[in-house]
Amino acid sequence: MDLSTSLYLVRPELILSFSSLALLLIAAWRQEAGRLVSILSVAALVGAGAYAVHYLCAGTDASAFEGLYRADAFSSFAKILIYFAAAISLMIAPKALEKMGAMRAEYPVLVILAAVGMGVMVSATDLLTLYIGLELNSLAAYVLASFARNDGRSAEAGLKYFVLGALASGILLFGMSLLYGFTGSTSFETIGTAMTGELSMGLLFGLVFVLSGLAFKISAAPFHMWTPDVYEGAPTPVTAFFASAPKVAASALLIRIVVEAFGNQVQAWQQIVMVVALMSIIIGAVGAIGQQNLKRLLAYSSINNVGFLLIGLAAGTEQGVAAMLVYLAIYVAMTLGGFICLMQLKGRDGEMKESMADIAGLSKTRPALAAIFAIFMFSLAGIPPLFGFYGKLVVFNAAIAAGLFPLAVIGIAASVIGAFYYLKVVKTMYFDESVDSIDVADDKILGWTGGALGLVVSPLGYLAIPVLGAVTAQAAGALF
């Protein structure tokens, strides 16, 4: 394949790369241009997303750069979710960061650079491309976590994320070196061919280390230890970004490497994925019960939701992957909506409120905010008729269809534990005595985006099932 064709296939990444360089120059010349750079960054994400939509609709399925990168329906769908989540994260950030004294023009540039890395991740068909994309995303994320330099919690979050992220990268690199050493190639396709038949001990260790490194990136138990501290310490707009776009990218990368590189050894990785899924569901649910900080609660919610995602992957089927993608799309809307509601909890003194005690009786002082927050909590809990229920339904259906009935039963039972802490939030807002500590929000963008996402996860979301089902089936089919 010639260079021009390869450059055509990577146009989303090229748009974002050149945009980030141009915006970085604006940031260097005009430090006060944070809002302008944010608007232009959203425009760049929309442009890159338009190409991803075009590739998806056109059925593009081709490799670039001698097989290092693949543009197909799967990567296009994942990029649409990533760019959407990144754009929403940029739209809601400026006012909140300005109040913290942390809004600088470099912030949207870092988000754009992270989006470039995530785009490379979901299109990677080689271990080298995988690692380049992963590190580009991670390096930007470390800076974003510690972006509020005057806040000790933010600095601590960035340091923890950097140290534990470096450890996870080392584990991943060791696994990649074992795969290369025992197969003689870094290509997913060649590794998959070499894994046909009996699995050697070296390849088994390589598989385990790679899955462990990627489990850290999606914050799956038992590699979740960084998530609550980083989510709590990072600025809330950054946390909203971490909980959505990178989660989609890492999950999509995990799907691709499992299906394309390890697809011939389902028995080898299926047990690992099943155990990690159940641990994530249970630890995420139990860990959230005693949390009084809402950001930590949503961090454990993120771990819990990763467990449900992995149930679809454990099925090892095309239906299971399609179910994962459906769940990811709904999860992005629910999580962003939850954090948008959290960002509207501003006290009378102008400080952001994050504790459970601060939302006591919120339904009496801010009924609209309490109602939309309750919708997101009920949807995350998977309570019908909200759209979050459908996400869990398709994942469990895929597991049962693959013969994993016990896994589905345990997952359904464990989801009841998770419902407890979501209902606890609703109970605090509607039945506890009002403390009247939350002021009226003055950021209309938060209200509009929260309302729009609330409609997505409401019963109206079911109207999107025919389109969402067809697109996710097309994306999953590209891997099989």
Automatic annotation (TrEMBL):
It is a multi-pass membrane protein. It is found in: Cell membrane; Endomembrane system; Membrane. It is an enzyme of class 7 (translocase). Keywords: Cell membrane, Membrane, NAD, Oxidoreductase, Quinone, Translocase, Transmembrane, Transmembrane helix, Transport, Ubiquinone. The chain crosses the membrane at residues 6-29, 36-56, 76-93, 105-124, 130-149, 161-182, 202-226, 238-259, 271-290, 297-315, 321-345, 366-387, 393-423. Residues 124-418 form the NADH:quinone oxidoreductase/Mrp antiporter transmembrane domain. The keyword Mitochondrion does not apply. GO terms for molecular function: NADH dehydrogenase (quinone) (non-electrogenic) activity; NADH dehydrogenase (ubiquinone) activity; quinone binding. GO terms for cellular component: endomembrane system; plasma membrane. It catalyses: a quinone + NADH + 5 H(+)(in) = a quinol + NAD(+) + 4 H(+)(out). Its EC number is 7.1.1.-. Pfam families: Proton_antipo_M. One of its GO terms (biological process) is ATP synthesis coupled electron transport. InterPro entries: NADH-Q_OxRdtase_suN/2, ND/Mrp_TM. The keyword Oxidoreductase applies. NDH-1 is composed of 14 different subunits. Subunits NuoA, H, J, K, L, M, N constitute the membrane sector of the complex. NDH-1 shuttles electrons from NADH, via FMN and iron-sulfur (Fe-S) centers, to quinones in the respiratory chain. The immediate electron acceptor for the enzyme in this species is believed to be ubiquinone. Couples the redox reaction to proton translocation (for every two electrons transferred, four hydrogen ions are translocated across the cytoplasmic membrane), and thus conserves the redox energy in a proton gradient. Belongs to the complex I subunit 2 family. This is NADH-quinone oxidoreductase subunit N.
